[in-house]
Amino acid sequence: MDMKKRIHLELRNRTPSDVKELVLDNCRSNEGKIEGLTDEFEELEFLSTINVGLTSVANLPKLNKLKKLELSDNRISGGLEVLAEKCPNLTHLNLSGNKIKDLSTIEPLKKLESLKSLDLFNCEVTNLNDYRENVFKLLPQLTYLDGYDKEDKEAPDSDAEAYVEGLDDDEDDEDEGEEEEYDEDAAPGDEDEEEGEEDDEEEGEEEEEEDISGEEEEEEELNDGEVDDEEDLEEERGQKRKRELDEEGEEDDD
Protein backbone atom coordinates (compact mmCIF):
# COMPACT_ATOMS: atom_id res chain seq x y z
CA MET A 1 0.00 0.00 0.00
CA ASP A 2 1.41 3.40 -0.91
CA MET A 3 1.78 6.15 1.67
CA LYS A 4 -0.97 8.44 0.35
CA LYS A 5 -3.58 5.68 0.47
CA ARG A 6 -2.42 4.62 3.92
CA ILE A 7 -2.80 8.17 5.23
CA HIS A 8 -6.29 8.35 3.75
CA LEU A 9 -7.25 5.13 5.53
CA GLU A 10 -5.69 6.26 8.80
CA LEU A 11 -7.85 9.38 8.79
CA ARG A 12 -11.04 7.28 9.08
CA ASN A 13 -13.35 10.14 8.16
CA ARG A 14 -11.48 12.53 10.45
CA THR A 15 -9.95 15.80 9.36
CA PRO A 16 -6.13 16.04 9.46
CA SER A 17 -6.33 18.58 12.29
CA ASP A 18 -8.07 15.96 14.48
CA VAL A 19 -5.17 13.49 14.24
CA LYS A 20 -2.59 13.33 17.03
CA GLU A 21 -0.98 9.99 16.14
CA LEU A 22 -0.21 8.63 12.69
CA VAL A 23 1.34 5.22 12.00
CA LEU A 24 2.51 4.56 8.42
CA ASP A 25 4.84 1.61 9.06
CA ASN A 26 5.70 -0.75 6.19
CA CYS A 27 3.85 1.17 3.47
CA ARG A 28 5.58 2.31 0.24
CA SER A 29 7.09 5.75 -0.15
CA ASN A 30 7.44 7.35 -3.58
CA GLU A 31 11.08 7.76 -4.55
CA GLY A 32 12.07 7.53 -0.89
CA LYS A 33 10.09 10.61 0.12
CA ILE A 34 7.18 11.29 2.45
CA GLU A 35 3.98 11.87 0.47
CA GLY A 36 0.43 12.73 1.46
CA LEU A 37 1.42 14.35 4.76
CA THR A 38 0.62 18.08 4.83
CA ASP A 39 0.71 21.10 7.12
CA GLU A 40 -2.96 20.40 7.89
CA PHE A 41 -1.80 17.78 10.44
CA GLU A 42 -1.12 20.65 12.81
CA GLU A 43 -2.04 18.69 15.98
CA LEU A 44 0.14 15.68 15.17
CA GLU A 45 2.31 14.63 18.13
CA PHE A 46 3.46 11.15 17.10
CA LEU A 47 4.54 10.04 13.61
CA SER A 48 5.86 6.57 12.77
CA THR A 49 7.31 5.76 9.34
CA ILE A 50 9.23 2.54 10.08
CA ASN A 51 10.51 0.55 7.10
CA VAL A 52 8.95 2.62 4.33
CA GLY A 53 12.08 3.02 2.21
CA LEU A 54 12.76 6.68 3.09
CA THR A 55 16.00 8.19 1.86
CA SER A 56 15.15 11.76 2.86
CA VAL A 57 12.99 13.75 5.28
CA ALA A 58 13.02 16.82 3.03
CA ASN A 59 9.30 16.49 2.22
CA LEU A 60 8.28 16.48 5.86
CA PRO A 61 5.66 19.20 6.43
CA LYS A 62 5.74 21.78 9.23
CA LEU A 63 4.65 19.93 12.38
CA ASN A 64 5.11 22.28 15.32
CA LYS A 65 3.50 19.95 17.87
CA LEU A 66 5.33 16.77 16.83
CA LYS A 67 7.06 15.22 19.86
CA LYS A 68 8.06 11.76 18.71
CA LEU A 69 9.33 10.75 15.27
CA GLU A 70 10.04 7.12 14.33
CA LEU A 71 12.28 6.79 11.26
CA SER A 72 13.95 3.43 11.95
CA ASP A 73 14.82 0.81 9.30
CA ASN A 74 14.97 3.24 6.39
CA ARG A 75 17.82 4.43 4.12
CA ILE A 76 18.40 7.94 5.45
CA SER A 77 22.03 9.03 5.23
CA GLY A 78 21.79 12.79 5.80
CA GLY A 79 19.64 15.89 5.43
CA LEU A 80 18.67 15.98 9.12
CA GLU A 81 19.02 19.77 9.29
CA VAL A 82 15.40 20.11 8.09
CA LEU A 83 14.12 18.57 11.33
CA ALA A 84 14.95 21.68 13.38
CA GLU A 85 12.88 23.74 10.97
CA LYS A 86 9.98 21.32 10.42
CA CYS A 87 9.71 19.77 13.93
CA PRO A 88 11.20 22.32 16.35
CA ASN A 89 9.64 20.72 19.47
CA LEU A 90 10.80 17.16 18.85
CA THR A 91 11.72 15.27 22.05
CA HIS A 92 12.20 11.68 20.77
CA LEU A 93 13.91 10.71 17.51
CA ASN A 94 14.55 7.14 16.38
CA LEU A 95 17.00 6.73 13.50
CA SER A 96 17.94 3.10 14.15
CA GLY A 97 18.85 0.98 11.15
CA ASN A 98 19.63 3.88 8.78
CA LYS A 99 22.74 4.79 6.76
CA ILE A 100 24.25 7.20 9.27
CA LYS A 101 28.04 6.77 9.30
CA ASP A 102 29.59 9.73 11.08
CA LEU A 103 28.95 12.34 13.76
CA SER A 104 28.73 15.19 11.27
CA THR A 105 25.47 13.67 9.98
CA ILE A 106 23.76 14.08 13.36
CA GLU A 107 25.40 17.41 14.27
CA PRO A 108 22.42 19.45 12.94
CA LEU A 109 20.28 17.82 15.65
CA LYS A 110 21.84 20.13 18.26
CA LYS A 111 19.37 22.77 17.06
CA LEU A 112 16.56 20.60 18.43
CA GLU A 113 16.72 22.11 21.91
CA SER A 114 13.94 19.89 23.30
CA LEU A 115 15.44 16.62 22.06
CA LYS A 116 15.86 14.25 25.02
CA SER A 117 16.11 10.82 23.43
CA LEU A 118 17.99 9.70 20.31
CA ASP A 119 18.30 6.13 19.00
CA LEU A 120 20.98 5.11 16.50
CA PHE A 121 20.98 1.32 16.89
CA ASN A 122 22.39 -0.59 13.90
CA CYS A 123 23.84 2.56 12.36
CA GLU A 124 27.55 2.52 11.38
CA VAL A 125 28.19 5.61 13.51
CA THR A 126 27.83 3.44 16.66
CA ASN A 127 31.09 1.67 15.74
CA LEU A 128 33.18 4.82 16.17
CA ASN A 129 35.61 5.11 19.07
CA ASP A 130 34.10 6.84 22.12
CA TYR A 131 30.81 6.96 20.25
CA ARG A 132 28.57 7.58 23.27
CA GLU A 133 30.85 10.11 24.91
CA ASN A 134 31.18 12.10 21.68
CA VAL A 135 27.45 12.10 20.93
CA PHE A 136 26.64 13.43 24.41
CA LYS A 137 29.24 16.18 23.90
CA LEU A 138 27.85 17.00 20.47
CA LEU A 139 24.24 17.04 21.66
CA PRO A 140 24.33 18.28 25.29
CA GLN A 141 20.53 18.51 25.47
CA LEU A 142 20.25 14.71 25.22
CA THR A 143 19.26 12.68 28.28
CA TYR A 144 19.18 9.24 26.63
CA LEU A 145 21.21 7.75 23.79
CA ASP A 146 20.16 4.31 22.55
CA GLY A 147 18.03 3.85 25.67
CA TYR A 148 20.66 4.78 28.27
CA ASP A 149 21.82 8.00 29.92
CA LYS A 150 25.39 9.18 30.47
CA GLU A 151 25.66 7.01 33.59
CA ASP A 152 24.48 3.94 31.63
CA LYS A 153 21.15 3.95 33.43
CA GLU A 154 18.31 2.57 31.35
CA ALA A 155 15.59 4.91 30.14
CA PRO A 156 12.03 4.51 31.47
CA ASP A 157 9.62 2.21 29.68
CA SER A 158 8.24 3.15 26.30
CA ASP A 159 5.23 5.44 26.06
CA ALA A 160 2.90 2.51 25.41
CA GLU A 161 4.13 0.58 28.46
CA ALA A 162 3.98 3.69 30.59
CA TYR A 163 0.41 4.22 29.43
CA VAL A 164 -0.53 0.66 30.43
CA GLU A 165 1.18 1.15 33.79
CA GLY A 166 -0.84 4.33 34.22
CA LEU A 167 -4.03 2.35 33.66
CA ASP A 168 -2.91 -0.23 36.23
CA ASP A 169 -2.21 2.54 38.74
CA ASP A 170 -5.67 3.96 38.15
CA GLU A 171 -7.22 0.56 38.75
CA ASP A 172 -5.20 0.20 41.93
CA ASP A 173 -6.38 3.61 43.04
CA GLU A 174 -9.99 2.60 42.33
CA ASP A 175 -9.55 -0.62 44.30
CA GLU A 176 -8.06 1.33 47.19
CA GLY A 177 -10.96 3.76 47.02
CA GLU A 178 -13.45 0.87 47.16
CA GLU A 179 -11.60 -0.59 50.16
CA GLU A 180 -11.66 2.78 51.89
CA GLU A 181 -15.40 3.10 51.25
CA TYR A 182 -15.92 -0.40 52.62
CA ASP A 183 -13.84 0.45 55.68
CA GLU A 184 -15.91 3.56 56.24
CA ASP A 185 -19.15 1.60 56.11
CA ALA A 186 -18.03 -1.25 58.31
CA ALA A 187 -14.46 -1.66 59.42
CA PRO A 188 -13.29 -5.20 60.30
CA GLY A 189 -12.80 -4.15 63.92
CA ASP A 190 -16.38 -2.92 64.08
CA GLU A 191 -17.64 -6.25 62.76
CA ASP A 192 -15.69 -8.12 65.44
CA GLU A 193 -17.04 -5.80 68.11
CA GLU A 194 -20.60 -6.29 66.83
CA GLU A 195 -20.15 -10.08 66.86
CA GLY A 196 -18.69 -9.86 70.36
CA GLU A 197 -21.64 -7.78 71.53
CA GLU A 198 -24.08 -10.30 70.03
CA ASP A 199 -22.28 -13.16 71.81
CA ASP A 200 -22.33 -11.24 75.10
CA GLU A 201 -26.04 -10.58 74.70
CA GLU A 202 -26.73 -14.27 74.05
CA GLU A 203 -24.64 -15.30 77.07
CA GLY A 204 -26.44 -12.70 79.19
CA GLU A 205 -29.81 -14.05 78.11
CA GLU A 206 -28.74 -17.60 78.95
CA GLU A 207 -27.53 -16.50 82.39
CA GLU A 208 -30.80 -14.68 83.02
CA GLU A 209 -32.73 -17.82 82.05
CA GLU A 210 -30.59 -19.87 84.42
CA ASP A 211 -31.13 -17.35 87.22
CA ILE A 212 -34.88 -17.38 86.66
CA SER A 213 -35.03 -21.18 86.62
CA GLY A 214 -32.89 -21.26 89.78
CA GLU A 215 -35.23 -18.87 91.54
CA GLU A 216 -38.23 -20.92 90.47
CA GLU A 217 -36.63 -24.08 91.85
CA GLU A 218 -35.88 -22.33 95.16
CA GLU A 219 -39.47 -21.10 95.36
CA GLU A 220 -40.75 -24.61 94.66
CA GLU A 221 -38.48 -26.01 97.36
CA LEU A 222 -39.69 -23.38 99.83
CA ASN A 223 -43.29 -24.09 98.93
CA ASP A 224 -42.72 -27.83 99.32
CA GLY A 225 -41.11 -27.16 102.69
CA GLU A 226 -44.03 -25.08 103.87
CA VAL A 227 -46.52 -27.76 102.81
CA ASP A 228 -44.56 -30.41 104.67
CA ASP A 229 -44.46 -28.26 107.80
CA GLU A 230 -48.22 -27.74 107.68
CA GLU A 231 -48.85 -31.45 107.28
CA ASP A 232 -46.60 -32.23 110.23
CA LEU A 233 -48.36 -29.61 112.32
CA GLU A 234 -51.79 -31.07 111.46
CA GLU A 235 -50.54 -34.54 112.27
CA GLU A 236 -49.28 -33.39 115.67
CA ARG A 237 -52.58 -31.67 116.34
CA GLY A 238 -54.44 -34.83 115.40
CA GLN A 239 -52.32 -36.98 117.69
CA LYS A 240 -52.73 -34.49 120.53
CA ARG A 241 -56.50 -34.48 120.02
CA LYS A 242 -56.54 -38.25 120.03
CA ARG A 243 -54.64 -38.40 123.29
CA GLU A 244 -57.06 -35.94 124.88
CA LEU A 245 -60.02 -38.03 123.78
CA ASP A 246 -58.43 -41.18 125.13
CA GLU A 247 -57.84 -39.52 128.50
CA GLU A 248 -61.45 -38.33 128.66
CA GLY A 249 -62.61 -41.87 127.90
CA GLU A 250 -60.56 -43.31 130.75
CA GLU A 251 -62.00 -40.77 133.21
CA ASP A 252 -65.52 -41.71 132.20
CA ASP A 253 -64.78 -45.35 132.84
CA ASP A 254 -63.60 -44.58 136.33
From TrEMBL:
Residues 166-254 are annotated as: Disordered. Residues 128-146 form the U2A'/phosphoprotein 32 family A C-terminal domain. Pfam families: LRR_9. The gene is LOC113105999. It is found in: Nucleus. GO terms for cellular component: nucleus. PANTHER family: ACIDIC LEUCINE-RICH NUCLEAR PHOSPHOPROTEIN 32 (PTHR11375), ACIDIC LEUCINE-RICH NUCLEAR PHOSPHOPROTEIN 32 FAMILY MEMBER A (PTHR11375:SF1). It comes from Carassius auratus. Keywords: Leucine-rich repeat, Nucleus, Repeat. This is Acidic leucine-rich nuclear phosphoprotein 32 family member. InterPro entries: AN32, Leu-rich_rpt, LRR_dom_sf, U2A'_phosphoprotein32A_C.
